[in-house]
Design goal:
The complex is a heterodimer of chains A (659) and B (301).
Chain A: H1 2-12, H2 20-42, H3 46-54, H4 59-88, H5 98-132, H6 141-160, H7 188-216, H8 229-261, H9 274-308, H10 315-328, H11 344-372, H12 381-404, H13 406-412, H14 416-446, H15 452-478, H16 495-525, H17 564-570, E1 587-590, H18 595-611, H19 615-634, E2 639-642, H20 644-653
Chain B: H1 2-26, H2 40-73, H3 92-121, E1 130-137, E2 140-145, E3 150-153, E4 155-159, E5 164-170, E6 175-179, E7 183-188, E8 194-198, E9 204-210, E10 222-228, H4 230-243, H5 249-255, E11 264-266, H6 286-289
Parallel strand pairs in B: 1-5, 4-10
Antiparallel strand pairs in B: 1-2, 2-3, 3-11, 5-8, 6-7, 6-9, 9-10
Helix pairs in contact in B: 2-3
The chains are: A mainly alpha (659), B alpha+beta (301).
Bound molecules: protoporphyrin IX containing FE (HEM) and copper (II) ion.
């Protein structure tokens, strides 16, 4: 028995998980865990948690759960980033060693893309799309909950690697042969493959769900060309997800087979080929960067008209450019490996296709500027992020163009220039967009407004911190510093810029703290949103009270044009003041279910078992998956009725019902 | 009043930005290796980079100016004299122009991009190159001179003014072979041999580094390129052949161990260390051979 325990401790907590940072993380997790359990027990909230949240299929609640996860992961990824930058502040001074540094940059990248950006965009999909298209829910509410729990348990599986068994350490791209057992014996890379596979299933389902929702569930009269631009962006994003995630799934699954069963898809023996992985990964990877930027484009296309008090300029060209980006995004992936010897013809082709995709992007920038032109711009936090986005993103796009110039990329590839480029577009584009959307739709999600003054403090810290961090990194690229070095020698002239960059990272860290303070403060003291339309909005979600009731619309609106709610307000005919009692009918709504949670849990157990090659546990988890799916297939009791009286009562309490 | 204040603030910001950029650019000392290429490949890559940067500066400027004007003129304050046109939402010619502006600028970049891409894929026709076979190992560089019959580890000599054709492969996870002073990088991949040519036009010692992360001691994968006159280069190869030890297969297997080493020189090398067919699966699989006697990579730190 003690031998078994010893084995267990040694496998789960090998030496490299017993360093100060890991032990610190262990301690934090333990304390937080005990704290949460204590509070839930003390206030008898377990049942509430299960009934109201863990089993919910309401898109608005799922949105909130995505958001909480995304902010938690932003914290984790941000701490990772500060550890990385601290290590690079001075030459040859390294608080953490190479092994740990490699784990931290791997988890940083993976978490920020898959477990921060993705759930953050899904939070806004869920919070906004059904309301904007005038629908009561998404097309498949249960699938929606399944998506969430697959994502959540994938994220948990990935995160426990830091303290149990050791984290992956081959970069967020996970190229073989470095991920092979011969070079990477611990469980880390298996964690990486399995958690991304599990979360990836959830993501693919989300793509399908929102594509169907947008195509099938729009309110009467809302033709495609009357949809709000955010809806268009989600439509194109969903299409991208559906075709981009399969190559990733294949790449990860085959790598996993190579690792666990000794097959050789990407290993050298028996005719395997590492470069095939690289192709598959970027066949996913390039569309992925557009998956996270298109929703940000959509958000800005809502924020700019609202705060410029003017209709979106160039609706048709906005749609054309979204759709062409969607198609072109599949045709550029080779630009991530121009230097893998594909030859000049292939490289020239993909260089040009990459430049091509910048044209529709440029069109959008001009259209936003001309939406502001002739408007009346109110500087709110949401608008500030947009105003920081335009200059920042243009610079990021320009440096991307320079990377698409093939011979220049030969020099810049894998240097800090690339690091600066993608942070420039990911932070300046995606993160600014998501934060803009967060401030904009927060009242709709929670019923109160985030304090604007504090929000502006956080904004300035973020933006200034961003530029101080990443401008020097372009120059480091020109100085020949390559990415993913855990330290660097003195004498290359790299130290000054690195120190500045680290400084900037801490300014951004302060910005994050200000954001959290802003949220916590406003939770308590924030101004309530009693009208449901705090920004003088233009689209249907603002026609509802904040937060929207469970059924969203007591009566589904009929749409006559773009910016329907604006038109209603102009004609004085909002939904709120012409709903009559007899218009309200009893509604059928989806019923809560614990199945998605159990399904995610089963995947987690199975994934954990496979990571450590403990087959009984893996098989147990697999059986759990099958059981959940069978249960789901034969559970016909999935609807509940919401009586008309209850709805009338709710509407009346908002003053939205005629006598 | 507010308008004046905000435009003054904008001016101040602009001045600050100009100062900052000036400071940064004036720092373009020799440590900016990409901006001070020492050979024709790096030079033509730099020219293209500068050309693209100028074209991009044009579009950045256009956007910044339009955006700045929009923000300054159309702020929402009482008595703003500028026209408010809430229903103006499309303009056929303007929107067509949005497509044309970036398209023209990109076309201007695209032409030289294609030309230089093809140009750099070929060795200059008249000169016969020095051939060097490069193998990246965990975590060191092996350089073999098939014509001179010598080999080195972590440093190499090349003659000035003569193109050098590198054949790149790996007996390890992937790396990239990069000497920023001379020109761009190319991957070293197990099971494949990729070509890259570079040339030094000035004598000197240039550092190189791997660009692709390859494991725990990746950071230490620096090497030095000594660009010397042709006669010095020949003398160097003679010296190596007469005084350096030969590389045996056993010595090569020592190099396959997962560790770092200093510079090493050899008067010969076994033919079997280099794959005979490229684009095939001809490597001996050496990278997997020594699994058992490798020190545990996790214990290395
Ligand atoms: C004008 C638009 C853009 C162009 C022309 C462009 C071009 C490129 C090129 C050529 C590379 C490869 C560089 C190399 O590895 O040598 C690259 C890398 C990258 N880009 Fe962009 N890009 C653009 C926009 C974006 C956007 C919008 C995002 C995401 C929001 C993005 C995210 C990334 C990422 C994450 C990488 C590198 C990933 C890695 O190697 O780890 N890019 N870009
Ligand atoms: Cu890409």
């Amino acid at each position: 028995m003690p031998a078994f325990l010893l084995y267990l401790v040694h496998t789960l907590f090998p030496p490299d998980t017993r360093q100060p940072t890991e032990l610190g993380a262990d301690f934090m997790i333990l304390v937080t865990g005990i704290g949460i359990v204590f509070i839930l027990t003390r206030y008898q909230k377990w049942r509430w948690l299960w009934r109201e949240w863990l089993t919910t299929v309401d898109h608005k609640r799922i949105a909130i759960m995505y958001l909480i996860a995304a902010i938690a992961m932003l914290f984790r990824g941000g701490v990772d980033a500060l550890m990385l930058r601290t290590n690079l502040a001075l030459p040859n001074v390294r608080p953490i060693g190479a092994l740990e540094y490699n784990e931290v940059f791997t988890t940083h990248g993976t978490i920020m893309i898959f477990f921060m950006a993705m759930p953050f965009i899904f939070a806004l999909f869920n919070a906004v799309i059904p309301l904007q298209i005038g629908s009561r829910d998404v097309a498949f509410p249960r699938l929606n909950a399944m998506s969430y729990w697959l994502f959540a348990f994938g994220a948990i599986l990935f995160n426990i690697s830091f303290v149990i068994g050791g984290s992956p350490n081959a970069g967020w791209t996970g190229y073989p042969p470095l991920t092979e057992v011969a070079f990477n014996p611990g469980p880390g890379e298996s964690y990486y493959f399995l958690s991304l596979l599990i979360a990836g299933i959830g993501t693919t389902i989300t793509g399908i769900n929102f594509l169907v929702t947008i195509i099938r569930m729009r309110a009467p009269g809302m033709t495609l060309m009357r949809m709000p631009m955010f809806v268009w962006s989600v439509l194109t994003t969903s299409a991208l997800i559906i075709f981009a995630f399969p190559p990733l799934t294949v790449a990860l699954a085959l790598s996993l087979l190579d690792r666990t069963f000794g097959s050789s898809f990407f290993t050298l023996g028996h005719g395997g080929m590492p470069m095939m992985y690289v192709n598959l990964f970027w066949l996913f990877g390039h569309p992925e960067v557009y998956i996270v930027i298109l929703p940000a484009f959509g958000i800005f296309s809502e924020v700019v008209p609202t705060f410029s008090k003017k209709r979106l300029f160039g609706y048709t060209t906005m749609v054309i450019s979204l759709v062409s980006i969607m198609f072109l995004a599949y045709g550029t992936w080779v630009h991530h490996f121009f230097t893998m010897g594909a030859g000049p013809t292939v490289n020239a082709f993909f260089g040009l296709s990459t430049m091509l995709i910048a044209i529709p992007t440029g069109v959008k920038i001009f259209n936003w500027i001309f939406t502001m032109w002739g408007g009346r711009i109110r500087i709110t936090v949401a608008m500030l992020y947009q105003m920081a986005f335009i200059p920042t993103f243009v610079v990021g796009g320009a440096t991307g163009i320079m990377l698409s110039v093939v011979p220049a990329d030969y020099q810049l590839h894998n240097s800090y220039w690339v690091v600066a480029h993608f942070h420039n577009v990911l932070i300046g584009g995606t993160v600014f967009g998501l934060l803009s959307g967060l401030y904009y739709w927060w009242p709709k999600m929670f019923g109160f407004i985030l304090n604007e003054r504090q929000g502006k403090v956080a904004f300035w810290l973020f933006v200034i911190g961003f530029w101080v961090t990443f401008l020097p990194q372009y120059l480091l690229g020109l100085e020949g510093m390559t990415r993913r070095m855990y330290t660097y020698p003195f004498g290359f002239g790299w130290h000054e810029l690195n120190l500045i960059s680290t400084l900037g990272a801490f300014i951004m860290g302060a910005g994050f703290l200000a954001l959290v303070y802003n949220i916590v403060w406003s939770l308590r003291y924030g101004e309530r949103d009693l009208t449901g339309d705090p920004w003088n909005g233009r689209t249907l979600e603002w026609s509802l009270p904040s937060p929207a009731p469970e059924y969203n619309f007591a009566r589904i609106p009929v749409v006559h044009g773009v910016d329907e709610f604006w038109a209603m307000k102009e004609s004085g005919d909002t939904l709120a003041n012409h709903l009559r009692p007899q218009d309200v009918k009893t509604l059928e709504l989806p019923k809560n279910t614990g199945m998605p949670f159990m399904l995610g849990l089963s995947f987690f157990v199975g994934g954990f078992g496979m990571t450590f090659l403990w087959w009984p546990i893996a098989i147990f988890g697999g059986l759990g998956v099958v059981a959940c799916l069978l249960y789901a297939a034969f559970d016909y009791n999935d609807k509940k009725h919401l009586p008309a009286d209850v709805i009338r009562h709710t509407e009346r309490s908002w003053g939205r019902l005629q006598a | 009043m507010q308008r004046v204040r905000s435009s003054r603030r904008a001016l101040r910001m602009l001045a600050l930005a100009a100062l900052g950029i000036g400071l940064l650019v004036s720092g373009c000392g020799p440590q900016y290796v990409l901006l001070h290429p020492k050979g024709p490949v790096g030079l033509s890559e730099l020219h293209l980079m500068e050309f693209a940067a100028i074209a991009m500066a044009v579009i950045i400027l256009v956007v910044f100016v339009l955006f700045g004007i929009a923000v300054v003129r159309f702020r929402d304050y009482p008595g703003n004299p500028n026209p408010y046109t809430p229903h103006w939402h499309s303009h056929k010619w303007l929107e067509t122009l949005w497509f044309i502006i970036p398209a023209v600028i990109l076309a201007v970049i695209a032409v030289p991009t294609v030309n230089v891409t093809y140009a750099l894929a070929k060795l200059p026709p008249t000169k016969d190159p020095v051939v060097i076979n490069v193998t990246s190992l965990n975590w060191k560089w092996l350089f073999e001179y098939p014509n001179q019959k010598v080999a080195t580890v972590n440093y190499l000599y090349i003659p000035v003014g003569k193109p050098v054709l590198f054949h790149l492969t790996a007996d390890s996870p992937m790396n990239t072979f990069w000497v920023p002073s001379l020109g761009g990088m190319e991957y070293t991949m197990p099971g494949r041999v990729l070509p890259l040519w570079l040339e030094a036009s000035k004598p000197g010692v240039y550092w190189g580094h791997s660009g692709q992360f390859s494991g725990i001691d990746f950071e230490k994968m620096f090497f030095h390129v000594h660009a010397v006159t042709e006669s010095k280069f020949t003398a160097w190869t003679h010296r190596l052949r007469s005084s350096a030890p030969p590389m045996t297969l056993a010595a090569y297997h020592q190099l396959l161990r997962f560790n770092t080493v200093g510079s090493e020189s050899y008067s010969s090398f076994p033919a079997s260390t280099w794959p005979s067919v490229s684009h095939g699966f001809t490597l001996s699989g050496g990278m997997y051979l020594l699994k058992s006697n490798n020190p545990n990579p996790t214990a290395q730190h």
